[in-house]
């Protein structure tokens, strides 16, 4: 999506930035991991395919992607942005007839960053952005049945089970954004600030 191509979302511990070509090499290394392929139900891609994917995600108007950076590292101008990367978060508009429905995906790719509350922070920031900027009213997430951590994360955020496929080994959780959910989420992400990405990045140097 082009809507976030110059958007930076500042959180408490993370900074979300649009997925650019300069992020692709590190992303490609992450997705070479069999563990992450399994947890995110992804197929391995060549580096060239990964560049094509990055560019199509930027152009397609049904997918909004942010790369997650370590805020503390990124604040240090001498550290290249690629070295601050720790994961990604997306929303897909899966139903062309209902652009208020979004599927969420999150990945804290660097194991040393897991279990520190970042997944929760990142998902809540993405959901707030999706509600306020993309007018999303319903979220869904598909999770492998053996991914207990991710299931626990989304249930904690108020998602409930919609369906379970033993065949695909996958559960679908969902959440409608009513007024109560909206105000809780916006309250929980009151710390979030939106900046211009290009300007903020130039100011690092
Ligand atoms: C799943 C994932 C996004 C969770 O992010 P995280 O930063 O590790 O999780 P958080 O520290 O924010 O924890 C959020 C909640 O998840 C649950 N959780 C986290 N670590 C857990 C663990 N080791 N065991 C059980 N539950 C756990 C808890 O409910 C936790 O809430 P709490 O701390 O308030 O109790 C992350 O581990 C990840 O990206 N893993 C690999 C890729 C993946 O599985 N992506 C999801 C595909 S659907």
TrEMBL record:
<comment type="function">
    <text>N-acetyltransferase that mediates the acetylation of the N-terminal residues of alpha- and beta-tubulin.</text>
</comment>
<keyword id="KW-0012">Acyltransferase</keyword>
<dbReference type="InterPro" id="IPR016181">
    <property type="entry name" value="Acyl_CoA_acyltransferase"/>
</dbReference>
<keyword id="KW-0808">Transferase</keyword>
<dbReference type="GO" id="GO:0120519">
    <property type="term" value="F:tubulin N-terminal-methionine acetyltransferase activity"/>
</dbReference>
<protein>
    <recommendedName>
        <fullName>Alpha/beta-tubulin-N-acetyltransferase 9</fullName>
        <ecNumber>2.3.1.308</ecNumber>
    </recommendedName>
</protein>
<dbReference type="Pfam" id="PF13302">
    <property type="entry name" value="Acetyltransf_3"/>
</dbReference>
<dbReference type="InterPro" id="IPR000182">
    <property type="entry name" value="GNAT_dom"/>
</dbReference>
<feature type="domain" description="N-acetyltransferase">
    <location>
        <begin position="34"/>
        <end position="178"/>
    </location>
</feature>
<dbReference type="InterPro" id="IPR039135">
    <property type="entry name" value="NAT9-like"/>
</dbReference>
<comment type="similarity">
    <text>Belongs to the acetyltransferase family. GNAT subfamily.</text>
</comment>
């Amino acid at each position: 999506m082009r809507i976030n191509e110059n958007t930076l979302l500042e959180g408490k511990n993370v900074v979300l930035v649009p997925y650019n070509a300069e992020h692709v090499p590190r992303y490609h290394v992450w997705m070479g991991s069999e563990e992450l392929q399994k947890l995110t139900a992804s197929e391995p891609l060549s580096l060239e395919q990964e560049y094509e994917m990055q560019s199509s995600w930027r152009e397609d108007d049904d997918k909004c992607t942010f790369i997650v950076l370590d805020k503390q590292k990124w604040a240090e101008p001498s550290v290249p942005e690629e070295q601050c990367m720790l994961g990604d978060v997306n929303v897909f508009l899966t139903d062309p007839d209902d652009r208020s429905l979004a599927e969420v995906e999150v990945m804290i790719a660097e194991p040393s960053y897991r279990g520190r509350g970042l997944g929760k922070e990142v998902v809540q920031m993405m959901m707030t952005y999706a509600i306020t900027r993309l007018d999303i009213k319903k979220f869904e997430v598909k999770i492998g049945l053996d991914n207990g951590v991710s299931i626990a994360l989304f249930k904690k955020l108020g998602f409930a089970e919609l369906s379970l496929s033993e065949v695909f080994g996958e559960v679908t959780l969902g959440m409608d954004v009513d007024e109560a959910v909206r105000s809780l989420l916006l309250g929980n992400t009151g710390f979030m600030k939106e900046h211009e990405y290009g300007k903020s990045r130039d100011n690092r140097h």
